[in-house]
Amino acid sequence: MPNAFVDDARNFKEDNPFESMMSRFDNAAKLLDLDPNIYRILRCPTREMTVYIPTLMDDGHYEVFVGYRVQHNFARGPAKGGIRYAPDVTLDEVRALAAWMTWKCAVVNIPYGGGKGGIVCDPHKMSQGELERITRRYTADIIEIIGPERDVPAPDMNTNEQTMAWIMDTYSMHKRTTVTAVVTGKPLDLGGSRGRSAATGRGCLFVTLQALRKFHMEPSQTTVVIQGFGNVGGHAARLMHKAGMKIIAVIEYDGAVYNANGIDPVALDAHRKATGSISGFPGAEEIDREEALFLPCDVLVPAARENVIHSRNAARISARIICEGANGPTTAEADRILQQKGVFVIPDILANAGGVTVSYFEWVQDRQGFFWNEQLVNGRLEEIMVNAFRDVVSYAERHNVHNRCAAYMLALDRVAFAIKLRGIYA
Ligand code: NAD
What we know:
Layout: H1 4-9, H2 17-32, H3 36-43, E1 47-56, E2 62-73, E3 79-86, H4 91-107, E4 113-120, H5 128-141, E5 151-155, H6 161-175, H7 199-214, E6 223-227, H8 231-242, E7 246-252, E8 255-258, H9 265-275, E9 285-287, H10 289-292, E10 297-302, E11 319-323, H11 332-341, E12 344-346, H12 348-351, H13 354-368, H14 374-399, H15 403-422
Helix pairs in contact: 2-4, 2-15, 4-15, 5-6, 7-8, 7-13, 7-14, 13-14, 14-15
The structure holds nicotinamide-adenine-dinucleotide.
């Protein structure tokens, strides 16, 4: 049976996020010989909500913004996923990201389905008051479909701890009781978790250490190139440096710096805070930011944005291991090229799952009303990341597929199993 929803959404383009996710999903489903009924269920989200958000602007007029919340699947638990604010948010993108969350939570085996949300707006042109009003109205508009047992939002592009605090407060006002577990990524004082802000970068460290171990490589002999020196890349750089690895280059949107003897990420961060850019850092030389991606290195960490490794540049990648800190940094076409080159890719749905894992810990702590120390958080994160790495790599070896395909197959298998156990389509 043709599926109008899916067929309409599929306009094949290398950098289309929906297409990118779907092509990996289709491939994994084929290799798994997935039950056609489950295949049909999983190709579509469970629920999509579009809201029109009237917002009082500072000059006294009302603007109506479009917001989305997509819940891809609930088979393994409540939906989980971020909310982004950006002018180019589309329903197609939010759909893809929601499905991505289903697979990511299944890969690390935490009890969530996938969700994602977004508002089409330009937060850089809005005041704090406008951002607060748009967030509160959006929360009220989607209130029936979110909640600790339904769907638990988190920060994503251009949203942060403050946004989560406003969502938590608005939800709690409507429920007439404080419900901290409705969102994760909150400030520590409002039920946030220790270790959350560094969790994604720390997860990248744990899986990279596993990959080095697999190839009998010593951290002290390992060179690393980091693209994107933000939350994920910045923490990954600092923690990898601390683990003894040599960060030979850091690439940002406005420049790149290189030092064959290693860059101190803490000093680089201080320089950027003082000057507004990584350029001009005294501990390194400036190099071309496009070329920096192709530097020979042991580990490349793309931690900036999607589609940076594509069919036109993948052949020039000289890294032995790629640890995908960002979501979707590699296109499906580039996958094939990297596989032919023998690059060991730690795919995004595994490599950057440290963030959602500590979000899960935050939700557990909120529901327990009992908070863990950072050592406990980091230790439990390590256990989950190491187990997930082993699950994916052994699955890849057993089925003779590359790691990304194995991660999708493993995730699909787990979600399909949950659907069968629940008898959702019986
Ligand atoms: P961020 O905004 O803190 O950092 C991104 C950094 O990349 C910024 O410093 C930005 O200047 C830089 N950048 C942007 N475009 C670039 C380009 N073309 N070349 C080089 N640098 C560029 O964002 P983040 O939270 O670190 O997220 C980065 C990626 O990781 C995104 O894909 C995000 O979806 C993904 N991710 C983040 C988390 C998390 O917990 N923060 C979890 C999972 C996945």
